Amino acid sequence: MLERLFRYPKVLARHREAPFLAERDDFLEHCASQGMARSTLAHVADELLVVVRRLDLTEARQPMTCQQIEAAAARWARHQRRRGHCLKLRWSQKRFTQVATHWLRFIERLEIDELKPSAGEQWIEPFTAYMQNERGLSILTIRNSRWHLEKFFAHLTTQHRTLAQATIADIDAFLESLAQRGWTRVSLAKSAKTLRAFLRYAEQRGWCVAGISAGIVSPRVFRDEGLPVGPDWSDVERLIRSAGGDSARDIRDRAILQLLAIYGLRRGEVARLRLEDLNWTRECISITRHKQRRSQEYPLLPCVAESILRYLEHARPKSSCREVFVTLKAPLRPISPSGLYNVVSKRLRTLEIRSRCYGPHALRHACAGRLVAEGLSLKQIGDHLGHRSANSTRTYAKVDLAGLREVADLSLGGLL
Question: Which candidate in 24, 36, 185, 405 could, as Cys together with 31 as Cys, close a disulfide (CB 3.0–4.6 Å)?
Fold first, then answer.
């Protein structure tokens, strides 16, 4: 690998004469397989020379701790500043730490500190098992519940309180702290609902004061406050056209935006989409519905098929990942749901498209609103969106403003 990165004999000899040649070369091969550019590989190789000289790796198979790596990085950064090679310590120290950590983990010489359990883990875990085994809730619902509970227990920890000592005042203070951080009433109501379910379970097991769950008061949520409202379809079309360029980012984002807007998919469903879910022979796409615990097939529309095929052939980096959409830069990995949020949010804000929310779910709402405007039945819309209950679909009928205006314009004089 080193011969492909360096041409000058003296430079190549300096790399070859340094310790751990085989380990460094294997690591560079691994980085190259992850799609790392040649110039980046050369920088990593240079940094590895510093790492093997600055870290004490003489004891065979002795793992290095994170504290040792950080101390060596700090010494190297100070040395670089004394030599006038850098003005600030931060960048040199950060680069040394990153390369050393990744390399030592690769050669199994990094001491992994045992993760400390998060606050309240001893109570959250049994409740998680209860939600999964007895209530049969979906993975996403359980994950969201855990997230709310972890925040609650973190708040208790900062107040030096335990679950057995928790009172209604503590819960009110927690919800108030979330409101001060900008949470909406809908989000606060979801957090209160999760706490109520957990504390009801905790009361049955004697973990907390009896009756505390009944005292939780959710913020008032008005009937139409949580109605799903997405951008106008004309704005969605403008959003998709904004990704009509020839760059790898535009090609990838166009396929993502079409899946979110045309099929009304959730961001997690797009992130989990795998290459085998695309059936080019039958011209269909299979979507895994986690809430329904089943897969749902859609016809692969020509415009979407063209965008995905263009991405796979011209923009998708070579990767062993089976997920369709991966990151643009190394290390290559499947794009995360939060990454999809950034894709949509940045383009919506750049185009100054007004919307109640700016993530992928805004496009799902826009899709549902368009289907309502086209006159499809609630059953057809619910099937398209993958709803389990008709109640989830009925909310979209409330935001059919065009239809409501037509009702308002009707003359009822003959009926009076």
Answer: 36
